[in-house]
Structure formats: C-alpha cells, structure tokens
Amino acid sequence: MVDSKMQPHKRVAFVLIDGLGDVSIPRFGYKTPLEAAKVPNLDAIASAGVNGLMDPVEVGLGCGSDTAHLSIMGYDPRVYYRGRGAFESMGAGLAMAPGDIAFKLYLEKLAVNFLLDGNLWLDILTPFHENFKV
To answer: Name one Pfam family in it (predicted).
Structure first.
C-alpha cells in the first residue's frame, strides 16, 4: 500500500465555456463564428484536453445552463434547483431564506419596444432599474 502523503496531488483545470454553441453563417463559409475565429490559445487548450458533447442531466433532456451547471458539479437539479430567479439572486450575493421567492425579469426586453437608436434603452431602463424595489 502506498502512503497517501507520498502521492503527488493531481491538478485539474476544468474549463466550461457556456453559451458557445451557435449556428453556421453563410458568409463564414457555413462555419460557426467560433469555427471561423482565430483562437490559437483556445485551440491549444482544446487539443491538449478531453472534449465532447454531453447531456448533463439525462440523455435527451435539453436544459438551460443553470440546471446543466448544477448537474456538472454533482447536484441533481431535480432536488436542488429552485428556479432561475433564486439561482441568479444568490449568485449576486442576495440571501435567500426558506419561503422567499425570487423572479428573474429581463428588463431589457421591456425597453426594446421603445428603442429609437442604439443608446436610448439605457435612458429608459437605467432610471427604472435604479429605483426598482422588491
């Protein structure tokens, strides 16, 4: 038996690039933007590692990144997932207590109908967002 104190620690770099999937673009020769991009450092990391596609929760179940990340880290999202609002609020440092309810609201989508130019949404959204109280 080998003494565990003598075993060197193995180090792992776990790189998860979320949202990288895309569709092919005709002007890129029907490649995705990532396939067309010049990314030598990312290519080097990918060629030295293990790559692939996975179904993080169960085979054939399409899920969002919130449930996929929980599953990849070993948590069953059917047990631990409490919705995107709670997930995002805790990620922002807001405490969640039993009985609390959190919603995720895309305020930008409310402002899209009012766009007159590329910057106007900030004028509409920012004052609303800064004064928004829960």
So the answer is: PhosphMutase
8 Å CB contact between 134 and 85: no
Q: Coil, strand, or helix at residue 129?
A: helix
> What global pTM score does this model have?
0.52
Can you spell out the DSSP letters for 35-88? Answer: HHS--HHHHHHHHHS------SSSTT----HHHHHHHHTT--HHHH---HHHHH
Tell me the per-residue pLDDT of 59-88, one tens digit each, with 9 for 90 and over.
888 888 888 888 989 999 889 887 788 878
Q: Which two tokens stand for residue 44?
A: 């080097």
Q: Return the structure tokens found at 64.
A: 């969002």
Q: Nearest-5° angle of CA 108, CA 16, CA 32?
A: 70
Count of positions (residues) in the chain: 134
Give every residue of the chain whose pLDDT is below 70, as ranges. Answer: 1-4, 106-134
Contact 47, 63 (CB under 8 A): no
Q: CB 32: neighbour CB atoms within 10 A? A: 14
SS3 for 120?
helix
